Amino acid sequence: MLAKIFNQFNQSAVKLSSNTLILSLRESYIALIPFFIVASVITLLNQWFDIADKGGSHEFLNTFNTLVWALFPLITLLSFSYYLSKNLKLHSIASPVLVMVCFAASTGYIIVNEAGIHIDSKGGVLYSILMPIFCCYILHYFASINALKLVGISTISLFLRKHLNLIFPYLLTSLITLICIPFISDFGNKILAFLMNYHQDASVFDKVSFQMITAHMLWFFGVHGDNTYHILAPAAYTDYQVLEGLSSYNFFSIFVLLGGTGCLWGLIIACYLLKNAEHERSIARISAPLAVFNISEVMIYALPIVFNPYFLIPFLLAPIVNGFIAYQLIDHGLIVLSASENIPWFTPVLLSGWMITHSWTGIALQLVLIALNVAIYYPFVLANQRHNITGKALDMLVKRYSAGHVIEDKAEESFAKSHSEQHIEQYSLKTVTDALNSGALALYYQPKMDPLSQQIVGFEALLRLIKNDGEVMGPWFLATLEQHKLMHVIDSFVIDQLEVDLDNFARQGFHPKISFNISPQNLLADGYKRVVKAFSRFPNQVEVEILESSYIEDFESTIELVKYLNKHNIQCAMDDFGTGYSCLSVLSKLNINTIKLDRSLLPIDGNIKSAVLYQHLAKICDELGFKIVAEGVESKLHEDVVKKAHIQCAQGFLYNRALPYNVAVELLKKQHHR
């Protein structure tokens, strides 16, 4: 029962993590990490060294922090709009401009009156998330309606055509937004007023709990919780005495938020305690120096904690535990406070404990609380590491939908260079970009079988396009992309996705040998560097399939390439041997590991000569030291020929078509348990 509940939770977590909206929010906040860090550091330096108070021209630094966080909603809105537009395949400049205009005009963030133009950050903080969602999804809907497009296929460029076709969707989105947002604002203000009135006579416990939970929930949903809470909440809920001589400011910064929002020292240490957790440890290493000064943005947005169901419970529980224990110990006199003035929030942990108590008891309390936070976070970090998607896997979820967008951008360059070429070429490229923009790239895995034992001995990774209706198609578009010199976009996707999937196979306890194809031109140019960077950490597990034509066109370079890949524990196979270029004399000069015999060599209708030729080719390759893979095994007749040729690795529809990653894993699990 528990296993079933956990599996359901895991499926929901992965589905939530891979949602376009969540991925866009994650990307947008990661892009803002430099802004968060630099803004915090400038504020710290000014407070430490009193730069503004020393005269000169730096008095503006006293209001720098206020200005930065007043602009925070606008900066967040632009970043989120950009990434959401990109992932919805809208134009990533035109769409954010529309969002920004609607935001400025309708939310009350910018106020225009007789005194001039002013900013009211309270009027914009929540709309920095709501407005991009509202505008982008409406624009996405209208942009998909063909009747609203001004220009069809024509001789003008893809770039110009796309923007002309945005005019009517733009207009309709603007009208709907400007009409609806005031009603949404009124409804939101009524809810906020109700909440504040409900807590009008709140106790200290109510105020602490409300601040703790509200700020952390805002963080979890992608909004900068602490600043948002202090902007929206009345002063009575942000500046109050928790106990005599202990302000809410000191209580939260010294005894609750140890390492920043979410008590991140506990999370950082928990990440270091994990085994084989490259992503988690990398983020912890980056976050630790910043956590010294209680800056938490990197950990929250890059791990991520935002919209990650695995971290919701500890993210709320750790500060609650810290607040409860600290309150009780101080209230009962076991921790005696010696300072009542506010200690800056960026004061490092342990130092702040000493400053507030002037004794080792403050330091001891902070150490105990951090240890408890580690215990709270560890099981959830472990579950996240084992079952959730993190790091590059999340990046690939975005990338698998963005290939068409990248190709479309490159196509504009192609148009500028080839305007005088046949119109049909532009039409074919438009067809490809439309198909990619309306679907998602994926890697599927065709099993390679031992014909005798019927066991899986490896896979070939094959590119597929998944349409919106779920139909899976082969990569029919590759010839067009190669013609326009755009294959590097696809090759980049294949390499990155295979790297992610190899990690996922390993997490499931499997290390299958996997072969894949990339464009020969890109491989010989500098693609081999990306291959080595991605796969050298999977020794002898990855095999690059090289077309026989590559040897014919540039024999010496191909030989050197194979040597280089072998040196880095990446094997090579000659793909489709026997398809027109084959020369037996070449075999004696090859330094590859595997020969893949093309399906065209297999006999049709029991052709005895074909069977004899196939068996002798296999024998020659075997005696020359090559491993052999039989391609295109589609019938028992084919399998019999392969068995008689003593070939120990075959692939084809007789065994299985190309399968999604999760189905391939299930096959390996079934084989393992036999």
From TrEMBL:
<dbReference type="InterPro" id="IPR050706">
    <property type="entry name" value="Cyclic-di-GMP_PDE-like"/>
</dbReference>
<feature type="transmembrane region" description="Helical">
    <location>
        <begin position="363"/>
        <end position="382"/>
    </location>
</feature>
<keyword id="KW-0472">Membrane</keyword>
<feature type="transmembrane region" description="Helical">
    <location>
        <begin position="286"/>
        <end position="303"/>
    </location>
</feature>
<dbReference type="Pfam" id="PF02378">
    <property type="entry name" value="PTS_EIIC"/>
</dbReference>
<feature type="domain" description="PTS EIIC type-3">
    <location>
        <begin position="5"/>
        <end position="380"/>
    </location>
</feature>
<feature type="transmembrane region" description="Helical">
    <location>
        <begin position="309"/>
        <end position="327"/>
    </location>
</feature>
<dbReference type="Pfam" id="PF00563">
    <property type="entry name" value="EAL"/>
</dbReference>
<keyword id="KW-0812">Transmembrane</keyword>
<feature type="transmembrane region" description="Helical">
    <location>
        <begin position="29"/>
        <end position="49"/>
    </location>
</feature>
<feature type="transmembrane region" description="Helical">
    <location>
        <begin position="163"/>
        <end position="184"/>
    </location>
</feature>
<dbReference type="InterPro" id="IPR001633">
    <property type="entry name" value="EAL_dom"/>
</dbReference>
<feature type="domain" description="EAL">
    <location>
        <begin position="425"/>
        <end position="672"/>
    </location>
</feature>
<feature type="transmembrane region" description="Helical">
    <location>
        <begin position="251"/>
        <end position="274"/>
    </location>
</feature>
<keyword id="KW-1133">Transmembrane helix</keyword>
<protein>
    <submittedName>
        <fullName>EAL domain-containing protein</fullName>
    </submittedName>
</protein>
<feature type="transmembrane region" description="Helical">
    <location>
        <begin position="61"/>
        <end position="84"/>
    </location>
</feature>
<keyword id="KW-0762">Sugar transport</keyword>
<dbReference type="InterPro" id="IPR003352">
    <property type="entry name" value="PTS_EIIC"/>
</dbReference>
<keyword id="KW-1003">Cell membrane</keyword>
<feature type="transmembrane region" description="Helical">
    <location>
        <begin position="124"/>
        <end position="143"/>
    </location>
</feature>
<feature type="transmembrane region" description="Helical">
    <location>
        <begin position="334"/>
        <end position="357"/>
    </location>
</feature>
<feature type="transmembrane region" description="Helical">
    <location>
        <begin position="90"/>
        <end position="112"/>
    </location>
</feature>
<dbReference type="InterPro" id="IPR035919">
    <property type="entry name" value="EAL_sf"/>
</dbReference>
<dbReference type="InterPro" id="IPR004501">
    <property type="entry name" value="PTS_EIIC_3"/>
</dbReference>
<keyword id="KW-0813">Transport</keyword>
